[in-house]
Amino acid sequence: MTCMTEELGLRARKKKQTAARIWRVAVDLCSERGFDHVSVAEIAEAAEVSKMTVFNYFGTKEGVIVSPMEEHVGDPARAVRERQPGESAVAAMRGQFLEQISGRDPSIGLSGDPRALKVRQLISETPPLAHRMVIFHMSSVQLLADALAEETGDMLLARVAASQLIGARNALIVENHQRTLVGDPLEEIAEDCAALAERVFGQVEKGLQGYPGKN
């Protein structure tokens, strides 16, 4: 049993390493030549994998570029579902976001990796990637709305609340990206982001008034 567990763990690590290598290669190639001028076959060759491996890991060329973001599509919904009794959805999401700031999580725009900035640039100049991010945003809102509606039974208000919460979260992430683009130090951005998170989620909380209560 131990050997099998170790083997599965090794396979998972190798798979993660391969995915990371494909992503790095894809971001570099697309940044140099433009997203539309790089084929999946070229990405595969540069990453020393088969074309089928790229598709198996990411599904599409767009998926390769934005996969690190999309891995976090369910973060807000998870924060709400796992929150403590008596804790509001706003408090749960604020707590999760502050933890991500503390961990310098790249998914919220706190990354020292230059490729993260390349990805933001690619998204801004490539319609298929921008469209993919719109779908990502909509999915994140719906997942959060589903989690809220499970407790309240009211999907309409759940969607309203989810849109406000995701909007607040995204505004903070955009601020982090913009400051990174102008060259502000990562540690300074993170420190300011923590204060901004308290302010932004506090504003949302005033409107939602502790919605929804959890027994």
Radius of gyration: 19 Å
Number of distinct helices: 10
Percent range for β-strand residues:
under 5%
Termini gap: 41 Å
Strand-and-helix sequence, N→C? Answer: HHHHHHHHHH
Identify the overall geometry: globular
Note the main sheet. Answer: none
Annotation, overall tally of beta strands: 0
Mean pLDDT: 91
Structural class: mainly alpha
Poorly predicted residue ranges? none
Helix fraction by DSSP (H/I, runs of at least 4): over 70%
Organism: Streptomyces rectiviolaceus
InterPro entries: Homeodomain-like_sf, HTH-type_TetR-like_transc_reg, HTH_TetR
Pfam families: TetR_N (PF00440)
Keywords: DNA-binding, Transcription, Transcription regulation
Folded structure, characterized:
With 215 residues, the chain is mainly alpha-helical. It is built from 10 helices and no strands. Helix 3 (51-58) packs parallel to helix 4 (61-70), helix 5 (75-81) crosses helix 6 (89-102) and helix 7 (114-125) packs across helix 8 (127-152). The longest helix is centred in the N-terminal third of the chain and has 32 residues, at 2-33. The radius of gyration is 19 Å and the shape is globular. The model has no long low-confidence stretch (mean pLDDT 91).
